[in-house]
Amino acid sequence: MKKIQNIGGTILAIMVISVVCVNNDSSNVKKSSVLAYNASGVNLESAQLIDSLKATFGDDYEQKMVKNELATKQAELLESKFEVDTNDNIIYPDNYGGSYINENNELVVQIVDNLNNNKLNYATLKTNISLEDNTLNEVVKYSYNDLISVNEKIVNYFLENGVTVSNFVANYIDVYSNRVVVELKNIDSESIDKFKREVYDSEVIEFKVGERADTTASYKVGAGFYVNAKYTKGNTTHHTGRYCSFGARAKRNGVSWYITAGHCFGYMDYTTVDATIANGTYVTRFYSQTMDAAFVKLNSGNTVTNNLSDVGLQASMIKTTGHNYYTTGTAVGKDGSAGKYGTGLIKSLSFSGVDKDGYYHSGLTTTNITAIDGDSGGPVFIVNNLTSSSGAPLIGITSVGNSNLLGFYDYNKIVTALGLTKY
Question: Residues 111-128: pLDDT tens digits?
């Protein structure tokens, strides 16, 4: 499992797959198919999730979740009005600073320089988007295009040159502060000057203290599944035994298998040559500076469901098909075989960072949920719709994390990277 620590918090990669493996042989039923209930008749796994929601959002979490869902839909509606290029990439208005859902579960739209302006403008296209009268506006200094430009320059530098700055930890867009945050292990004038000189210098950048992640997987008993992997680089060979977790079911070439984290099966720049897994066979992985996912084929006689599972108890399910939009401030949850349920908010849509082995990971979405060793590979989902009979929408698979910080790669991008089909 990997850890990445962020400014006051840490993001650590975790492998947890909360999908239930069930053997079709009725004489050998897994414990995960057995339901457990408390004295009030509430499923224990569901009760754990409710307790997590109350701890994060308060006893009135249901009302807050309704407001959060409405604000998320507002953000999606606004985004649907933005222009797109020929590759369907969003073109942001020139005076758009960003948007987020605040502590009152209201959508806040940031406008550059002029708070009284209720329109988002495209200067070159000579078009604009009128904001709703009840939209909360916030004046900011930098446009979202400014933030993207600076953040991408930093990302591209490290992708092309490697991590040449020994003090570097992470970089990401923080819409709350209207800045690109760069985290360093130590903040001093020499370290900041070195970064500005070697990587990039801009007034948009804000420097903060952070800590790099640990990229080893959990060895704790009770995680989702055990992997014994052999991976090589040149003449170097490693053998590693580690516990990981199920993320979600999917199909590849018409066959039903499951998704987990790619770092389960060795270091980023190594080739996995063999992996022993109970009830399954390692098929492929996509583990690079921009992706962390793997696909495992189940042995004959086993099937996988999308029911959330922890310590053998079955509960609510996740939804792997259909609508799964999220934005900064959307309420989300995670399940992990080690850390169990957790809930929190989306904090950044553009996190990149270096782990303790020196590998750079870009394109992560982060939350303020705590993740621990053994959670890697587990599902991250929207909690707004959790009570829906169709399940909670899956949005990603846990990759990195630590205390109050969990990073994941987007589910739709994982499906594309591994050539999968949702079901």
Answer: 998 766 788 999 887 888
